[in-house]
Design goal:
mainly beta; Elongation Factor Tu (Ef-tu), domain 3; 2 domains; 6-stranded antiparallel beta sheet; 6-stranded mixed beta sheet; 12 strands
């Protein structure tokens, strides 16, 4: 089963079996839809309701209507089937991007060591060339070529 990690169930909310999921997954709108299935401990659960509350994704699953019925799911990791993600042509999962070949417009080759969230709206690529370089994960610095599995980086003065 080829799955991608979505987040973690951190608590319940209320008494009607609603679960609070902490997630930084970039394609939440494709995952958190009524009728989609989340994978928890190799078991599939259907999303019956979804809403956002503060920084959390709130779901009810299957036919659980009581807090006592969902306590066994607390602190569990939540996954989603990759085949059900249906990513667009320009959308790439971070774990796939790390496997891509990295080239610069200046002719250097490198590898992506890490992708991390610098702030709520900014992701950074940690790329190893001759030395380590931090590159903002956004256009015009980074171009993704999904079919060729390549990342083209435009290093500007100060990045090298």
């Amino acid at each position: 089963m080829d799955v991608v990690r979505i987040g973690k169930i951190v608590s319940t909310h209320g008494i009607k079996g609603e679960l609070r999921i902490l997630s930084d997954f970039p394609y939440k709108e494709k995952v958190f839809q009524i009728g989609n299935h989340l994978i928890i401990d190799d078991h599939s659960y259907e999303i019956k309701s979804y809403r956002v509350h503060k920084n959390y994704d709130m779901v009810t699953l299957d036919d659980y209507h009581d807090i006592n019925e969902v306590l066994f799911l607390l602190k569990k990791e939540v996954f989603f089937l990759k085949k059900d993600l249906k990513l667009d042509e320009d959308e790439v999962l971070d774990e796939e991007l790390i496997t891509y070949e990295v080239l610069t417009k200046q002719g250097k080759k490198g590898i992506i060591k890490e992708i991390f969230q610098a702030s709520e709206t900014n992701k950074i690529l940690r790329v190893q060339f001759d030395k380590e370089v931090l590159v903002p994960y956004r256009f015009p610095f980074v171009e993704i070529h999904k079919k060729e599995k390549k990342v083209i980086i435009d290093l500007i003065d100060g990045m090298e």
